[in-house]
Amino acid sequence: MLREQYREFTGWTIYQIYPRSFKDSNGDGIGDLQGVISKLDYIKELGANAVWLCPCFKSPNDDNGYDVADYCDIMDEFGTMSDMDELIEGLHSRGMKLILDLVPNHTSTDHKWFQESRKGKDNPYSDYYYWFDEIPNDWVSNFGGSAWQYDPVRGQYYLHSFAVSQADLNWDNPAVVKEMQSIVDFWADKGCDGFRIDVIDGISKNFRNGKNDLGPHLHDYIRALFGREKVAHLFTVGEGHTNDIEDIVLHCASERNELSTLFIFDHMECGRADKFTPKDDSLKSLRDYLVYWQTETDKNDLLHSLFIENHDQPQMISRIGNDQELRYESATDIAAMVCLLKGVPFIYQGQEIGMPAAHYDSIDDFDDVECLGYYRKYKKTLSEEECLEKINFGSRDNARHPMAWDGSRNSGFTDENVSPWLLPHSRAAEINVENDLASEKSVYRFYQNMLHLRNSNQALQYGDVAVLSKPEDDFFIYTRSLGDSKWVVICNFETEQNIELPFECEVPVLANLNRQAASGSYAPYECAAAKVK
Ligand code: GLC
Ligand code: CA
After folding, report:
1. Which among 501, 524, 500 has a CA at the least distance from the CA of 512?
2. Is 62 a catalytic residue?
3. CB 367 less than 6 A from any atom of ligand 1
4. Which residues pair with 239 in a beta bridge?
5. Full-model pTM
6. Which residue of 24, 261, 264, 439 has the smallest Cβ count within 10 Å?
């Protein structure tokens, strides 16, 4: 990545949309591209200047679009290619960027490539997937059960790292690499500004027993995709699964010509022992992860991705914050802990109004293929009540319930008389955009002020980070400095604290409660940002 690009991307804030759940424009209960288009001003006013759209390509939707049946066509429920053109135009005319979600590790078994491939060993698509006469290793699917499926048509086993209908592509076949290159080019030609790349570190396999560690050709394949001159200017963020800084450097160092940045998931374990089991963490644990990764990425001159939510994660405020009486305070406090650090902030739909996790009483109310697989597994040893507790805690549906725009029956996501594809959020009547904006304690307005501050001060985008709080402190203080401009961000944790800063500051311009001075007593979850004199 070029230096100037690094600089440009550091000024971005990306708003992530799960199109299925964002806004339905035609009353069929499913969010769509016209729905997204109708909310572009809402996103722009928040202060984001890019949108990452989860997969919107043709798909039978076993994994809501992460099972692609045609990468160069739009999912029927989401609209048409002309809607996509209109969306790109709508973004660009507002000075905003579009990031698409590329899924190169697997296709839907409905994809033409798979349908041809399964026909036998002597067709042009025969080697597009991994076929074996015998199951070659002990791999299990990320969604539970064996990762190998027998296909009676071909009379062989194929690999599916995720659902049975998501067959892993064989990247060792140069024809597959070519296909993916032309898909990237197709979207770049259409004006797409970048990609979020699904499970990027899975595309090269080692086929050893145990975990599929990074395969031997991973870096060659990534470079084949994005290291080419035609597309080297695009923003690329990979979904990685490594917490090893050396691996991350290999993916993201500018001279490597691979990715602009990688999602590092270490801190996303905050508040949970595993996906479905809570753990007694706190804001302190989150701070320690943030500090560690900020330091490591800085030391290695990497562009860092700043995020605490996405479509796969139950909301952070419900894990380590207070999603009841101090919901506003903890949502805004966590926002300041993360979004004023150095890197590219990502905001997931609903995060900007402090949407917490949801709760449902019946397994029938869930859709997420992953949680349903785990439910079946837990049912073997746990009571129904215990199972539901786990599923409610960890289900990806927490983040996938229709966006709550108002307090009406279907939360303003779709018409009141239709059934949305997934139930409205269980707290949508109380927590929604309309209520938030009408409240004195508006999470949206806090985000708006925070992003405005960030966007209008180079020190908060490009400035160096220094951490002033000590590991034993029950708060987080960091500064951002560039030239003679210096800012301080103070985020208190769960208990009241007296905080004396070692320098004089102006009156805080950003605060979640009323504050006249940066030093002094801080209420639980109180935060502020101020210019250092
Ligand atoms: C990624 C996506 C997730 C999807 C999986 C399989 O982890 O974020 O939603 O189910 O890949 O494509
Ligand atoms: Ca629709």
Report:
1. 524
2. no
3. no
4. 263
5. 0.98
6. 439
